[in-house]
Amino acid sequence: MKPYHLIVSGYSSFDHMLKLLSPAVVGKTSLIANSSCSKTFWGGCSVNIAVALSRLGLKVLTVLRVGDDFESSGFKTFLQEEGISLDAITHIPDETNPRSFLLQDPEGEHITTFYPGAMDERYFSPYPDAWFENSEAALMTVASYKDNLEFLQKVRKYRIPLFFGMKGDFSAFPPDMLEEIFRESAILFMNRTESEQLVELMGLNSIEDVFSIGKAEVLVITLGSEGSRYIARDGSSEQVPAVKIEKVVDTTGGGDGFISGFLYGYFTGLSYKECCQYGSLVSSFVLEAEGCTTNLPDLGQLLKRKQERG
């Protein structure tokens, strides 16, 4: 067995959450509702998923570039305490870690601003082969174009299964590359809007046509409060309800939580339906607190909620 269940690519981020009492309008001041607006929450798709899977007992290798504030910010200590390997982390001198400022309007919609910092593609350097030789599978999330291309090439070289968390970022995933990724991926995660974009972009008649052009075992489409749907290569498909929670505090990172729960189920040999159920369970914890990694469960907490809520 290889040392890591999964190698994960994608931006890290020091997240700042700003909840606005009125819409942001040029020339006007919007008051911020949350006193936590100055607090840093550790995040980024790759970090969210790595922490979630680590808490559930899986070994994850996260490909990151970090700045001079890696240690002073407490980010290094956070990763170490979460059991995240530092073996695929590269330091970029005279630069800072990426930062996001997420603005939530009164209707709950988000505007995201992002400074890539050390993860900018101008700091890209080729990845060591050992990272991929030591990993059973790979998950690609949003990173720079150069990082995405390198990640895809290494996955192909070492013939390890690729999982893909699609995002509507066409600078990171130009149409030609997106088609290559879809041809290579064994599991594809997307939301309803992204699935519609994909059908149009690739000239498909329906999302199921993806099976005719690549290696996909299963497509997983998240549907918000309606749950999720899996569509398997063998033609099986089912919509799986979402886990009900009393109060949604923050939806940021909910999709990453779903991917994490699904992959936990996948690595432990569960059915696609059960994987979707675990995805919804992990996501429910994320939605209950501010910050993408703040409220992620350990395995005991996850199984307790599964027993309580089915």
Task: Report the CATH architecture.
Answer: 3-Layer(aba) Sandwich
Bin the strand percentage: 15-25%
Query: Main sheet?
Result: 8 strands, mixed
The spatial strand order of the largest sheet comes to 4-1-9-10-11-12-13-14
Separate helix tally: 10
**Rg from C-alpha positions?**
19 Å
Summarize the structure.
The protein is α/β, with parallel strands linked by helices. Helix content is 33%, strand content 22%. The chain has helices at 45-55, 69-72, 75-81, 129-133, 145-158, 175-184, 192-201, 254-267, 272-287, 299-309, and strands at 4-9, 13-19, 41-43, 60-62, 64-66, 89-91, 99-104, 110-115, 135-140, 162-165, 185-191, 218-222, 228-232, 237-240.
Descriptive terms for the model:
UDP-N-acetylmuramoyl-L-alanine:D-glutamate ligase, four-stranded mixed β-sheet, 310 residues, globular, eight-stranded mixed β-sheet
Molecular structure report:
The structure is a single chain. The chain has one domain: UDP-N-acetylmuramoyl-L-alanine:D-glutamate ligase. It starts with a strand and ends with a helix. With 310 residues, the chain is an alpha/beta fold. The model has no long low-confidence stretch (mean pLDDT 93). It contains 10 helices and 14 strands. 33% of the residues lie in helices and 22% in strands. The longest helix is centred in the C-terminal third of the chain and has 16 residues. The radius of gyration is 19 Å and the shape is globular. Helix 8 runs antiparallel to helix 9. It has an 8-stranded mixed sheet, sandwiched between helices. A 4-stranded mixed sheet has the order 3-2-7-8. A two-stranded parallel sheet has the order 5-6.
